[in-house]
Design goal:
Elements: H1 4-7, H2 9-16, E1 21-22, E2 32-33, H3 37-47, H4 58-81, H5 97-117, H6 139-146, H7 148-165
Antiparallel strand pairs: 1-2
């Protein structure tokens, strides 16, 4: 990527201009990477039941993947011609009233749990509970969680001693 500017200036300029993502709509900040875009096509095909039963038949699978995107496009054009509402959104899906309401309800529930049970930032008890369920963490797990830095350092020192310093164990 660092050599793009000198080895392929046209590609470099396209990246600088932001042409390395796919936009399926005009909603800001909804672009996806080019490697992710085919997954959206696959999902559209799966939703209509297209992939069921053909995964073991190579010829059927090949025909399907060659024709399904075009059939999907034609179906969408037919919907537009018939005056049927299309599925294109005018805003990001997370900005819908249903998503916003559910998120606000979840925040209120979480606040209620934190306020009623404990302040997770100022917890002085010896047991470590789950802040949602209030289940107490088992002692051996609690020990590992609380001492993870020390345990990691010991594991690293052991690894380095046996594999790097003495070649006792092959990497």
């Amino acid at each position: 990527m660092r050599a793009h500017q000198s080895t392929d200036p046209d590609i470099h300029q396209e990246c600088i201009d932001g042409h390395f993502v796919v936009n399926k709509n005009q909603i800001p900040f909804c672009a996806i990477g080019v490697n992710h875009a085919p997954e959206h096509i696959n999902r559209i095909m799966k939703v209509i039941g297209g992939l069921v039963g053909i995964t073991q038949n190579a010829c059927a699978r090949e025909r399907f993947f060659l024709t399904a995107p075009e059939l999907s496009r034609l179906a969408e054009e037919a919907q537009v011609m018939a005056g049927s509402p299309t599925t294109t959104r005018q805003e990001h899906h997370d900005l819908s009233l249903a998503v916003w309401t559910r998120q606000e309800e979840n925040i209120a529930r979480l606040k209620k749990v934190i306020i009623s049970s404990m302040n997770p930032m100022k917890y002085d008890n010896e047991d470590l509970p789950n802040i949602i369920t209030t289940d107490v963490m088992p002692a051996e797990v609690q020990n590992d969680v609380c001492n993870q830095g020390d345990i990691g350092q010991q594991k690293y020192a052991n690894f380095a001693e046996k594999r790097i310093n003495t070649n006792e164990v092959s990497i």
